[in-house]
């Protein structure tokens, strides 16, 4: 518990993120497939931004650029003014698939980042604290195949959080979970974000999820993705799904995504 | 097994109720053990009853030994409850003990007693026992030589194969140079190198080590390489965003992920290196079990050949078992994800 308290009070404020006129394209059998076109988003430190858009429009591609896993074909990305050129543990991604390493126990999976940075020996308590945080301390010695989908995703979240990221990048992390687990984990995510203060970038295909969680919802166009709308959600937490203000925004967003006829 | 109604049981009392099923279950539990004992008594008596058609010195001792085994099987079965895990182990193997006892009995009768099988080519069990007791030093020397040669060659081949496989799986440049060489030389059976190896290497021992290493190295290289190449990019992405350097990606991501493949290669390499070992020993190296076989053939000592074959198969299966247990220890995480 001491370790837990320490992890929570650990100062890890968020970083600012500037996406400036970013364009990207893939080469598919010699033909160029434009995926991002002139995307500019400026994210304040500690903001929770949700990205919504049609499937295949380029959201994951944008997240990979933010993470530094790929370099953009045009434009620049900056974390706190510093240009993003390669991955760094201050920006950690949680993918849709938990992608836990099957040959490592839960504890060793969570320890991955600290081990890779060569600081695990002195920082073992952070691993324990992160596991406590997602409520999986009793599964520390389990292997990934022994976990349920929700538990595996929690481990992936702990594996990201243990690094005290300044920007947490979430690519549809709850997409595959059942609705009950999903609602629980949404609440946990908000609580974590409020406690730790990291900047959050969340891709989701669920407008309701975006509105319950985020300060700001950015809606993308079809591929190549452009910013179609940038909506501020000024509502205190915890938010209620039935809130008429959110329902109104939801209708507006679904309209932007081309669903006005049915909604 | 018969069934009883509740009123039957109440009327006739408990003791009578349980006797018949008890006997049946006793036979089910101990039957195989008793049969094993009977089979080994039969084998022992078959040794002692008739006179040998040839001149073998261990017939009497073998008969006594068989009777001792029969007694152990009997007491082990009857007293299984008091013997703990040893009793359980005996119970599990009892059917095999029955089969073995019967086989030995038939073998004994068909060779030593009535010579139904042509004699010098099919020696009786006591002739093979005689080899183990009387020719032990030479056999042990051969075992030692074989193990030394095999172990050295295999370890070299496995290490080099593993390192090569990881390098080609990881580095495009290494792959560019090594891949064609592997394609060209790899499929050649290592034994085809034998004549060349024996006069280019300084000693037949180093030549054989090289050939065993070659036979081991090829499958280990190919499977390590395919294992490393098939690791999902998602793992690398995760590790990279967490701050992993290239060395971490190789040592902590690529290699552990490829390990199941590597073990397939190690098993294949073990099999093909055994073949090379025996051939190399028969042709060039003047030591080892392969050489012992060759030597025994020269003297028409058929019992010695069977004795050497039995030792050889024990060694080979022992090596495979050892490799299995290493794999099981290193790949515990696979339990539950794949069928073993
Ligand atoms: N590595 C790649 N190579 C080629 N095309 C890609 C690659 N990654 C994504 N794409 C293409 O880019 C487009 C956008 O993909 P993505 O960013 O994953 O969309 P989403 O918004 O659903 O996350 C898709 O049409 C996809 O086929
Ligand atoms: Mg996506």
Automatic annotation (TrEMBL), chain A:
Keywords for this protein: ATP-binding, Cell membrane, Membrane, Nucleotide-binding, Translocase, Transport
Family matches, as InterPro entries: AAA+_ATPase (IPR003593), ABC_transporter-like_ATP-bd (IPR003439), ABC_transporter-like_CS (IPR017871), ABC_transporter_ATP-bind (IPR050166), P-loop_NTPase (IPR027417)
* Positions of the ABC transporter domain: 17-247
Kindly list the GO molecular function terms attached to this UniProt entry: ATP binding; ATP hydrolysis activity
Family stated for the protein in its record: Belongs to the ABC transporter superfamily.
Q: What does the function comment of this entry state?
A: Involved in beta-(1-->2)glucan export. Transmembrane domains (TMD) form a pore in the inner membrane and the ATP-binding domain (NBD) is responsible for energy generation.
UniProt protein name: ABC transporter ATP-binding protein
User: Upper taxonomic classification of the species?
Assistant: Bacteria, Pseudomonadati, Pseudomonadota, Alphaproteobacteria, Hyphomicrobiales
Automatic annotation (TrEMBL), chain B:
Alphabetical UniProt keywords:
Cell membrane, Membrane, Transmembrane, Transmembrane helix, Transport
Membrane topology, as annotated, equals: Multi-pass membrane protein
Which InterPro entries does the record associate with it? MetI-like, MetI-like_sf
UniProt-listed PROSITE patterns: ABC_TM1
Task: Please state where this protein is localized.
Answer: Cell membrane
Recorded GO cellular component terms are: plasma membrane
Give all residue intervals belonging to the ABC transmembrane type-1 domain.
143-324
What does the entry give for GO biological process? Answer: transmembrane transport
Q: Which SUPFAM superfamilies match?
A: MetI-like
Question: What residue ranges are annotated as transmembrane?
Answer: 26-51, 63-84, 96-116, 151-170, 182-201, 207-236, 305-326
The text of the family note is: Belongs to the binding-protein-dependent transport system permease family.
Identification of the protein by name: ABC transporter permease subunit
């Amino acid at each position: 518990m001491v370790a837990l308290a320490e992890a929570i009070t650990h100062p890890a404020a968020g970083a600012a993120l500037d996406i400036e006129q970013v364009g990207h394209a893939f080469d598919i059998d010699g033909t160029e497939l434009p995926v991002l076109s002139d995307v500019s988003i400026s994210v304040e430190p500690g903001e929770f931004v949700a990205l919504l858009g049609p499937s295949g429009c380029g959201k994951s591609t944008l997240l990979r650029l933010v993470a530094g896993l790929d370099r953009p074909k045009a434009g620049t990305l900056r974390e706190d003014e510093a240009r993003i050129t390669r991955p760094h543990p201050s920006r950690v991604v949680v993918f849709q698939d938990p992608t836990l390493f099957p040959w490592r126990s839960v504890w060793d999976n969570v320890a991955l980042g600290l081990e890779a940075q060569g600081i695990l020996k002195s920082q073992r308590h952070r691993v324990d604290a992160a596991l406590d945080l997602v409520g999986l301390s009793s599964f520390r010695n389990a292997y990934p195949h022994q976990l349920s989908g929700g538990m595996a995703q929690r481990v992936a979240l702990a594996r990201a959080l243990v690094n005290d990221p300044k920007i947490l990048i979430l690519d549809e992390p709850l997409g595959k979970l059942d609705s009950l687990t999903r609602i629980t984990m949404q609440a946990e995510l908000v609580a974590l974000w409020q406690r730790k203060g990291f900047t959050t970038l969340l891709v989701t295909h669920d407008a309701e999820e975006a509105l319950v969680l985020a300060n700001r919802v950015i809606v993308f166009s079809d591929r190549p993705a452009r910013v179609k709308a940038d909506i501020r959600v000024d509502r205190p937490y915890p938010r209620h799904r039935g809130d008429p203000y959110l329902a109104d925004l939801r209708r507006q967003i679904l309209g932007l995504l081309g669903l006005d006829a049915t909604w | 097994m018969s069934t009883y109604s509740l009123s039957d049981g109440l009327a006739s009392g408990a003791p009578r109720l349980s006797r018949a099923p008890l006997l049946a279950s006793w036979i089910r539990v101990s039957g195989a053990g008793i049969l094993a004992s009977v089979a080994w008594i039969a084998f022992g008596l078959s040794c002692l009853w008739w006179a040998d058609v040839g001149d073998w010195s261990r017939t009497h001792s073998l008969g006594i030994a068989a009777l001792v085994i029969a007694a152990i099987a009997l007491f082990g079965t009857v007293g299984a409850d008091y013997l703990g895990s040893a009793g359980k182990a005996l119970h599990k193997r009892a059917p095999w003990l029955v089969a073995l006892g019967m086989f030995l009995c038939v073998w004994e009768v068909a060779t030593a007693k009535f010579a139904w099988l042509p004699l010098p080519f099919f020696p009786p069990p006591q002739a093979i026992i005689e080899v183990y007791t009387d020719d032990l030093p030479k056999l042990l020397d051969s075992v030692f030589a074989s193990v030394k040669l095999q172990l050295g060659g295999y370890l070299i081949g496995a290490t080099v194969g593993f390192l090569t496989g990881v390098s080609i799986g990881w580095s495009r440049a290494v792959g560019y140079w090594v891949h064609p060489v592997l394609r060209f030389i790899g499929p050649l059976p290592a034994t085809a190198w034998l004549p060349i190896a024996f006069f280019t290497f300084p000693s037949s021992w180093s030549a054989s080590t090289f050939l065993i290493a070659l036979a081991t190295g090829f499958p280990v290289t190919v499977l390590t390489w395919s294992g490393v190449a098939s690791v999902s990019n998602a793992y690398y992405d995760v590790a990279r965003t967490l701050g992993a350097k290239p060395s971490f990606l190789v040592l902590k991501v690529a290699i552990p992920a490829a390990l199941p493949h590597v073990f397939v290669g190690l098993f294949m390499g073990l099999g093909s290196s055994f073949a090379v070992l025996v051939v190399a020993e028969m042709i060039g190296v003047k030591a080892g079990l392969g050489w012992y076989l060759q030597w025994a053939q020269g003297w028409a000592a058929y019992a010695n050949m069977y004795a050497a074959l039995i030792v050889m198969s024990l060694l080979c299966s022992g090596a495979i078992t050892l490799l299995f247990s290493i794999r099981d220890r290193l790949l515990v995480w696979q339990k539950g994800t794949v069928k073993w």
